[in-house]
Write a structure and sequence with these properties.
The chain contains 7 helices and 5 strands, in the order αβααβαβαββαα. It has helices spanning about 30-40, 70-75, 80-95, 130-145, 160-170, 200-205, 210-230; strands spanning about 60-65, 115-120, 155, 185, 190-195. Helix 3 (about 80-95) crosses helix 7 (about 210-230) and helix 4 packs across helix 5 (about 160-170). Bound molecules: iron/sulfur cluster.
Length: about 230
């Protein structure tokens, strides 16, 4: 398995404005790890995982990176592993998804005015992308978040996603402290909401409960209503 501490070779920036490239292999360590995982699991997606949900949605959820047997296997963010159970159930409870379950890519789930993506589009070893890999992938996130309408909301799942989202908006992460339940103004009525990641570890240890997660998504939905974007949700 590639070592996160080794020097990470990063190729030049992707084309400006590109939101996704299914053949991207800028991060040598991740490209090599994906090839290794693909060899062991030929049925797995094993590519950069594209965002899910309509472009230009008013709520964008930013996770960390695809999970080995979740998004990396299914090809859809938060699909097929534990983290997606709470995420999609809660999005559905607040009117952002057509159904509460999202365990399979062909399950018919559609997102409503909501888009789900990751700060890093490729599976990292041990779920730990290097800082250079997070930076390398930030152009894709920035292109996606550039479509966020005025008054929109971004929900960052964990500190790495929080920092990546801020960088994507051209902000310095050090100026905005990550804290579960925090809300940060981004200008033009847009706001960044922070939550602990809905990972199995965080929910099993009750660092994040369903009620805590529900409260953050409720706050983001309230923000959209108060920004004059109420569609009856
Ligand atoms: S993590 Fe992002 S930048 Fe790196 S290879 Fe994957 S898609 Fe490309």
């Amino acid at each position: 398995m590639p070592d996160a501490t080794q020097t990470t070779a990063i190729l030049p920036d992707p084309a400006p404005g590109a939101e996704y490239d299914q053949d991207c292999a800028r991060c040598a360590r991740l490209a090599s790890f994906l090839a290794e995982v693909r060899g062991r699991n030929p049925g797995y997606f094993c590519r950069p995982v594209p965002p899910f949900g309509p472009a230009g949605a008013r709520l964008v959820v930013v996770g960390l990176a695809p999970g080995m047997h979740g998004a990396n296997a299914s090809g859809r963010p938060f699909t097929g592993d534990h983290a997606g159970i709470l995420l999609y159930a809660t999005l559905h409870a607040h009117g952002f998804a057509t159904q509460a379950e999202g365990a399979r890519r062909d399950d018919g789930l559609a997102l409503l005015d909501c888009r789900v993506t990751n700060a890093v589009k490729c599976l990292p070893p041990d779920n730990k992308p290097s800082p250079a890999e997070v930076r390398a992938c930030n152009g894709y996130l920035a292109a996606d978040l550039a479509r966020l309408p005025d008054g929109g909301a971004v929900l960052a799942l964990g500190r790495i996603a929080h920092d990546a989202a801020l960088r994507a908006f051209g902000q310095k992460p050090a100026r905005f402290a990550f804290a579960h339940g925090a809300r940060h103004a981004l200008g033009r009525g847009r706001a960044l909401f922070d939550s602990y990641h809905c990972s199995r570890y965080n929910t099993n240890t009750r660092r994040l409960t369903a009620a805590m997660f529900d409260a953050v998504i409720a706050a983001a939905a309230r923000h959209l209503r108060e920004a004059g974007a109420d569609d009856g949700r």
